[in-house]
């Protein structure tokens, strides 16, 4: 035998002779990852700044100070005259304010739905359109635009209703197709069924669009790129209940999403019904997304970029990602809408173009920073 | 006390487990051994309620049924063979997942949950790593984190599916020693599947051999892990030596390789030597 390295090895620590266990009461306490007050404050500040900016700036010039006075005057117990003209008042409360609120609701919903999808499917590329919402809503909207006038429902605009119905039909088809012959439903089957359903709905939508020639093409195209420039309080009323319910369910499930990250089998062994949690989260996220899409068209990137940016900055726990996605998603879309309205003013740029144009480079910067730090 | 009665599992149309009956006393250690595909993992998954089964699993006399997941998670803690370790999650958060069945379904951990986790983290000497992400741990450290997650479940039964897979010999011993000390301290029933027959012999009070989905032999390690049984059920040629802390199973090359026979050529009738 030859000794290759003649070096005294350090004595190996053994756990075998541990001190006797300390009683539970005297042991310390560990701190789990939680949402910090500073996170909430930052999120609120961002949302408030975005809201203020979008009320003060727009294609129609309003004096920012008077806008601020008009907003403060709305607070209870404040008696203040803003000096805004009647037209200015109308622009502020009938155009900018509903657009701002709708932008915040849509952005919050898309971002939180994206975060939830990424959690339940353990897939960083999952976005709220994964299970066919976008293609279903697209088909619904196209049908409404092409054949619209023949079935207008009273004074209601048929477009959001058709888009919402299309989205729900597509996701229901995905769930039905993913149901295997005997019990259980794996996440991968669901995603694949979603891909197939999306392809089918998109092909039908393209067929209808081509068949009708160019007259409706521009309308369909601009709807698909998304936007909230025609928003009024009516759309806010339509969307608000969905965002409140879906957002509430997803925020309540945030810790369970962390449990799902160890896989279905281990989550089950820890007492969490993985398949049921996934179903609840997917249904909530999908309903909310379908409602958002029906009033805003297909706004891309928000559902991927916002949750990932938060993940890169605050860590992998959904206890932080879910609530912060709501706040930063809302603020982000409000700012994006502000740019869409002002960059080429008086022309409007589709909102989806802005979210991708702003979001993608910002996301790449965060990604590089995180890599450098990690 | 863990009792498994007439447990049968059918997976994909094939019987993976036939009428298994066995039990483990509080503070006892049952080592489950058997060749690949004998049904060790299936037995463990059935006890954890992760596969549908016939028969019943009782803990302290109560049938666990298949409905209440949370009750089961408070009764049985599971160390999987290949645990899913989310790379970015830190050790504290990971260990606290083990308390999921104790606090409200939608609620957060209570102070008691956090104390329990702190005690286990300290006991398993993980305090130093508590805020590190799982992806930054070595194999031995992550296996201790998995064991910690199982222990904070505070379940009377701990089932481990080859907890030493992918660990070197020293770390294998470390993990098994820890489990052994903890079951003595806390009176936990341990059921542990192991590939390494020597480790199984040295840590188990009772060894159970599974073969083609049936319990074929059980008893004290020295009685069960004989050259004859190992040749019969594992188709392995070994020498069993007497070690200070139990039998040592050493592989030995036989003079004629053809003397080795495939395991299914010896499907003798069930034999029990307990």
Description:
The complex is a heterodimer of chains A (about 375) and B (about 270). Chain A is mainly α. Chain A has a single domain (about 85-374), classed as ABC transporter involved in vitamin B12 uptake, BtuC (Orthogonal Bundle). Helix content of chain A is about 70%, strand content about 0%. Chain A has helices at about 35-55, 65-75, 85-120, 135-145, 160-180, 185-210, 215-225, 235-250, 255-260, 265-270, 275-295, 300-315, 320-340, 350-374. Chain B has about 270 residues and is an alpha/beta fold. Chain B has one domain (about 1-265): 3-Layer(aba) Sandwich (Rossmann fold), CATH 3.40.50.300. In chain B, about 30% of the residues lie in helices and about 25% in strands. Chain B is built from nine helices and twelve strands. In chain B, the strands form three sheets. Chain B has a six-stranded mixed β-sheet with strand order 6-7-8-3-9-10, sandwiched between helices. Chain B has a four-stranded antiparallel β-sheet with strand order 2-1-4-5, covered by helices on one side. In chain B, helix 5 (about 140-150) packs parallel to helix 6 (about 170-185). The longest helix of chain B is centred in the middle third of the chain and has 18 residues, at about 170-185. At the A-B interface, helix 9 and helix 10 of A face helix 2, helix 3, helix 4 and helix 6 of B.
């Amino acid at each position: 035998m030859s000794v290759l390295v003649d070096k005294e090895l350090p004595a190996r620590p053994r756990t075998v002779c541990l001190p006797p266990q300390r009683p539970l009461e005297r042991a310390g306490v560990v701190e789990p990852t939680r949402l910090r007050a500073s996170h909430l404050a930052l999120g609120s500040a961002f949302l408030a700044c975005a809201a203020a900016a979008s009320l003060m700036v727009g294609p129609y010039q309003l004096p920012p100070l008077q806008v601020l006075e008009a907003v403060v005057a709305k607070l209870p117990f404040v008696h203040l005259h803003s000096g805004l003209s009647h037209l200015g008042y109308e622009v502020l409360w009938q155009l900018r304010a509903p657009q701002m609120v709708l932008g915040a609701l849509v952005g919050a919903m898309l971002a939180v739905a994206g975060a939830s999808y990424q959690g339940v499917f353990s897939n960083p590329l999952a976005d709220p359109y994964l299970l066919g919402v976008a293609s279903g809503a697209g088909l619904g909207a196209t049908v409404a635009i092409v054949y619209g006038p023949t079935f207008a429902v009273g004074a209601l605009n048929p477009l959001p209703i058709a888009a919402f119905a299309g989205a729900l039909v597509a996701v229901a088809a995905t769930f039905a197709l993913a149901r295997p012959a005997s019990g259980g439903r794996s996440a991968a089957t669901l995603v694949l069924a979603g891909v197939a359903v999306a392809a089918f709905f998109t092909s039908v939508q393209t067929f209808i669009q081509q068949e009708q020639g160019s007259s409706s093409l521009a309308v369909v195209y601009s709807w698909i790129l998304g936007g909230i420039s025609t928003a009024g309080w009516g759309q806010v009323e339509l969307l608000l209940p969905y965002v409140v319910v879906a957002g509430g369910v997803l925020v309540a499930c945030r810790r369970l999403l962390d449990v799902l990250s160890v896989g279905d089998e281990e989550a089950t062994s820890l007492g969490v019904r993985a398949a049921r949690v996934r179903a609840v989260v997917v249904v909530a996220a999908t309903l909310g997304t379908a409602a958002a899409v029906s009033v805003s068209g297909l706004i891309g990137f928000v559902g991927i970029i916002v949750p990932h940016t938060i993940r890169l900055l605050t860590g992998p726990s959904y206890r932080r990602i879910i609530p912060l996605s709501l706040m930063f998603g809302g603020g982000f879309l409000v700012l994006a809408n502000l740019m869409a309205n002002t960059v080429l003013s008086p022309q409007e740029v589709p909102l989806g173009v802005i979210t991708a144009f702003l979001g993608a480079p910002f996301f790449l910067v965060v990604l590089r920073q995180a890599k450098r730090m990690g | 006390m863990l009792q498994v009665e007439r447990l049968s599992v059918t997976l994909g149309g094939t019987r993976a487990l036939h009428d298994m009956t066995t039990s483990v006393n509080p503070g006892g250690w049952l080592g489950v051994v058997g060749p690949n595909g004998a049904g060790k993992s299936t037995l463990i998954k059935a006890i954890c309620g992760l596969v549908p089964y016939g028969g019943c699993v009782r803990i302290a006399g109560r049938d666990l049924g298949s409905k209440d997941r949370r009750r089961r998670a408070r009764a049985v803690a599971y160390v999987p063979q290949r645990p899913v370790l989310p790379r970015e999650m830190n050790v504290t958060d990971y260990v606290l997942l083990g308390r999921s069945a104790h606090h409200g379904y939608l609620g957060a951990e209570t102070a008691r949950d956090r104390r329990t986790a702190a005690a286990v983290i300290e006991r398993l000497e993980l305090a130093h790593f508590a805020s590190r992400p799982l992806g930054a741990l070595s194999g031995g450290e992550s296996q201790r984190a998995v064991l910690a997650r199982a222990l904070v479940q505070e379940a009377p039964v701990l089932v481990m599916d080859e907890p030493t897979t992918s660990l070197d010999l020293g770390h294998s011993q470390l993990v098994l020693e820890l489990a052994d000390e903890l079951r003595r301290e806390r009176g936990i029933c341990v059921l542990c599947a192991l590939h390494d027959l020597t480790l199984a012999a040295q840590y188990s009070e009772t060894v159970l051999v599974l073969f083609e989905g049936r319990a074929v032999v059980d008893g004290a390690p020295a009685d069960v892990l004989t050259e004859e049984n190992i040749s019969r059920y594992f188709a392995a040629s070994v020498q069993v030596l007497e070690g200070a802390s139990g039998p040592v199973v050493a592989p030995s090359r036989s003079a004629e390789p053809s003397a080795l026979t495939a395991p299914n050529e010896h499907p003798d009738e069930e034999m029990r030597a307990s």
